Fold this protein.
Amino acid sequence: MNEKSSENYALKLIVFRINEEQPFYGINVFKTFEIQRAKHFKISEVPRANEYIEGIVYIRNQPVPLVNLPRWLTTNLSEQEERNSSIIFCNFNNIQIALRVGSIHQIITRDWHDVLALKFHEYMPVDRNLNYTLLDDGHSVCLILDVEYLLTEVLPHEFSEIQEDIQNLPLNNVEIPESLKNGTILVAEDSRSAQVYLKNFFEKLNLSFKIFENGGPLLEYIQDISDISKIPLIITDIEMPIISGHEVIRRLKSDSRTKNIPILVFSSMTNDQSRIAVQELGADGFVGKRSVEQMLKQLVAAVRIPLASSIS
């Protein structure tokens, strides 16, 4: 992979802080569309909103819910810090939200192997994961915001609707390919909430599956398996520590043993740039993390239909 293409698949983070006493946090640049000083916006309160929603702010003639990220991170801004705070406008799975943060520190680019998982699950909820990287000084830790987990708490109705969609999924006229029925679907996904979604989805379809925390153990499992024909499909997220979805696709599609296994990308980064990037690597399909019916269609299409038809 040349230097230019390697940079295209790297992780770019907006690094910010809540205040001087809090750690550095990072959010993927490609999940954001604007950063503004909070003082430029009027906040309209929303009656009976949950504790994390400050209200609504308007940008580009669109109302966007404003999330009080300090409050979600169990801290509070002083009046002075709030006056000097910034707002990061984000788009996750076509859900637009605004995050109030303290100050913007810098933008950094990291290879995915420089993104690591914190192994402190005994101190955190079981449905939460936390990844980190180091800043340019080599010792300051930047915690990468777990967006899926954040959204399940600040916009819980969005995810309850997804679970309802799974339970109400119409299967009468859906023909599941025999290869999916007889094999085991392999999944690389580090988000706990996304893992639950996929588990419920596959159980609804009565399909066998195996979920890995990132691309590393998935690739090791495939290397050790003797009968590749038992793998009808691989589903991978893009953003994962150590080995990203981009690297999973690149390695599998460049290996003669595995190049014909269909790969479906399952990501909250639904912009055109993300779709084009995985298409160039050879992915056989792409689906956002909110659309249950599209997930079913792409699941079938990725197994039956070549790339050009299924990823558009």
